[in-house]
Amino acid sequence: MTFTRSLSALLAAAAASTLLAGSAFAADPIKIGVPVGLSGANSVVAPSVVQSAELAVAEINAKGGVLGRPLALEIADDASGAAGAQKAFDSLVFQKKVDVLISMETSAARNAALPIVTRGKVPYIYTSFYEGKSCSPFMYVNAWVPEQQVPPIVDYFAKEKMAKTFFLIGSDYAFGRGMLAFTKAYIEKTGGKVVGEEYLPMDGTDWTPIISKLKSAAPGALITSTAGGAPNVTLTKQLRASGVTLPYGNLAVDEGTAKGMGTDAEGIFLSASYVTGIDSAANKTFLGAMQKKFGADLKTPNDLSVPEYEAVYAYKAAVEKAGKTEASAVLKALADVAVDGPRGKIAMSQQHHAALTMYLGQVQADGGVKVIQSFPNVSAGQQCPNLKP
Amino acid sequence: MITLALDIITTAAILFIVAAGLLIVFGVMKIVNFAHASFITVGAYAALVTSRFGLPPAWAPFAAFLAGGLIGAATERLVVRRLYRRPLDAILATWGLGIVIGQLVTLAFGREVQFVPAPISGTLAAFGVDYSLYRLLLVPTALVIAGLFAGLLNGTRLGLSTRAVIMNENLAQGLGIDSARVRLITFGTGCGLAAVAGALITPLASVDPNMGLAWLIGAFMLVMVSGGSLLTLGLSCFVLGGLQVLASTFISPILGGLTIAVLAAVALRLRPQGFARA
């Protein structure tokens, strides 16, 4: 008798617990659309972005989700291009009916996809650094713009390396030219002088004439903004082979590429809102959790993947503040919430952009990046003065 | 001024090294090997593997020649040999072959940019300027490659058979020359040479699955203009490469990037036989 009773009690408890667990997630999931370049040029970085999103969603769901609803990821490949992005955004917004879009994109893909976001009236958190001044009431940005990335390098070269003249080299495309146009204006505003500005087409492989001009101009420092990957590596190798030892700031290099360049990358200065070496408890917890979840398959977290992780939390905070997933309420709340993440406390409160702590790093002989100086809460400046918050 | 002269000479040397393999295939077989770019890539990855095994960097070009030559010979047997009478289809087939090889490289090594340490770094103080030592070394390297092939073509039995096939294949066959074997060896050698080029440019370029592609159009144009001999290829590399450097230096590197393709097209319009004697 006692046996039966205890058994039934056990069964009841078990039933109750499944019921409880069930009730927590009985509601429909909140869908997060992640359009990224799983194929094409961005495929080098896209897997790390997806891993970031997966960790954030798993952590949030383990703690009961958002407003009692679980989060679910909808990943779509955009083939790293504008046409692919239009397809990916279209299917996420109108077929999968996602509640929010959170991802990095190339500038061309973002511009192509924004009309779809506007038509679908879906909040979009853009997590890639970019050339700035892209404004939409539906889009928030939690990554850096030139106003935040360029000054640390230029200021450091001017103050610590006594550089008065600068030479600029870039790849001939929107991001390369946009970054260097800003850099030039900033150098001239702060009293420096640009003694040369040269571009090579994206598929160009021989930088020799440009390097010869650089050497004859004999500037105090060099700043480059090439396309990521091959052009960056080619330029750096040829600079090193020609014996260029100037202070060398690279606006397009990240930790992964720096490792790939081996000894040639040593000494390069870079500026980023995230490097793995950030010495904070939040960053160490994040890196530990990534390591635990993905083990040997872990893609090194970077300046494009960490904003994805933080943006999922920013969305969670905005939905909780709004009390619902309805787009206009969430969009309003996104400007007000702040999230503590691996990059520190971040709020997208400056005209849909965020003030960020920027790190000036220098590549070491082992390929790691050492933080030389940090610049807390660098303002995004005037990005979208016509947007309300 | 001296820097400019060195820029021109070294650029011509690099272009010659890259285009030589394509020229040999085109000269003998009258087909354009659009998989040339992929064989450049194969050579670069051969250099990567050599350095991963800790072998001296000087071995890289030989390892590359072996890898490129074997893969080239295999593809000649499997694909190219069926298409000798259909040169346009051969362009498509070799282009497709290039994509296949590129994807296989991606599968084996991943899409990311790889690093091969440079065998020599630093500069040489020559004629009063500091110049990249490795670029300077590519000039004698190009001359050695040219010398080896001139010697092979003019001083050996195989070279004799090859020249016979170039001049009149039917007649050569009638004389008992195994033209299929000549073609196999030529295609393999051309691909091997492309791979050598890949290994030689790794210290100056990034190693990634698409790295060869940037060189393909330039090499193709140079071979078309040269009209098919090593000497005229050297000449066209010097003239067009030199103009590219001049345009890049005095006008803009963006225009410089167009120089070879545009001038080669113009040259072929005005003089269809290119630099070759009529």
Could you walk me through the main structural features you see in this protein, from its secondary elements to its overall organization?
The complex is a heterodimer of chains A (389) and B (278). About 3% of the residues of chain A have low confidence. Chain A has two domains: 193 residues, Response regulator (Rossmann fold, 3-Layer(aba) Sandwich), CATH 3.40.50; 126 residues, Rossmann fold. Helix content of chain A is 43%, strand content 20%. The radius of gyration of chain A is 23 Å and the shape is globular. In chain A, α3 packs parallel to α4 and α5 packs across α6. With 389 residues, chain A is α/β, with parallel strands linked by helices. Chain A has a five-stranded parallel β-sheet with strand order 2-1-3-4-5, sandwiched between helices. A four-stranded parallel β-sheet of chain A has the order 7-6-8-9, with helices on both faces. Chain B has one domain. Helices cover 73% and strands 3% of the residues of chain B. Chain B has eleven helices and two strands. Chain B has a two-stranded antiparallel ribbon. At the A-B interface, β7, α7, α8 and α9 of A face α1, β2, α5, α9 and α10 of B.
Brief digest:
The complex is a heterodimer of chains A (389) and B (278). With 389 residues, chain A is of the alpha/beta class.
Secondary structure blueprint with pairings:
The complex is a heterodimer of chains A (389) and B (278).
Chain A: H1 2-24, E1 30-36, H2 46-62, E2 71-77, H3 82-95, E3 100-103, H4 107-120, E4 124-126, E5 139-141, H5 146-160, E6 165-171, H6 174-189, E7 193-200, H7 208-217, E8 221-225, H8 230-241, E9 248-250, H9 255-260, E10 269-272, H10 281-294, H11 306-322, H12 327-334, E11 338-341, E12 344-347, E13 356-363, E14 369-378
Chain B: H1 2-29, H2 36-52, H3 60-78, H4 87-109, E1 123-126, E2 129-132, H5 133-155, H6 157-167, H7 169-174, H8 179-201, H9 213-226, H10 230-250, H11 253-270
Helix pairs in contact in B: 1-5, 1-8, 1-9, 1-10, 2-3, 2-4, 2-8, 3-8, 5-6, 6-8, 9-10, 9-11, 10-11
